[in-house]
């Protein structure tokens, strides 16, 4: 069975059940109010103002529930619109600071050294967080071809790597930030926190973190 169909059916059922529950609760409230009136002390009847307060309170809660339901419906529609727009990104290359999928070929990085730095060092860690390379590069915002060499100069194995650019002034590190690069988008999916893009290798990145988009190169 298609999971998306099941999820949609459950959502519709939940939304349909909400108004029914409100109606049921309102009818229950009216019955309780009627019983309260029938069993009140004739010598000390309940002030009509109290009934009005109770009814107004319940009515306010009912309206709040309906408002929350409406907002949830609107949020769902906005997410669907955003997801439809992002679907046009699939197949393109997005620039972000997501981890890098290295498969033996050079990867073009977009370094951005901090202002005032006189040295720039690429720090590469594998998926387990282990340091596998430190490489000094020019202090420039020009694209840089990372060859995927380890500390010993040998090519790193295929895998996912996190690359950080350390900006140095002399021997002092003044800044450290993930390096941006381009990667192909293979999927766009929505969630309660926004649209997530899935890059080659299953790497996920928030759509909001994408800083540039281009057609596939090569």
From TrEMBL:
Under the heading Pfam families, the entry gives: FlgD, FlgD_ig
Annotated coiled-coil positions are none
Keywords associated with the record? Bacterial flagellum biogenesis, Cell projection, Cilium, Flagellum
Q: Where is the FlgD/Vpr Ig-like domain?
A: 104-170
What the entry lists under InterPro entries is as follows: FlgD (IPR005648), FlgD/Vpr_Ig-like (IPR025965)
Is the keyword Nucleotide-binding in the record?
no
Family, as annotated: Belongs to the FlgD family.
The task this protein performs is described as: Required for flagellar hook formation. May act as a scaffolding protein.
Instruction: Tell me the protein's name.
Output: Basal-body rod modification protein FlgD
Q: Which organism is it from?
A: Rhodobacter calidifons
Gene name on record? flgD
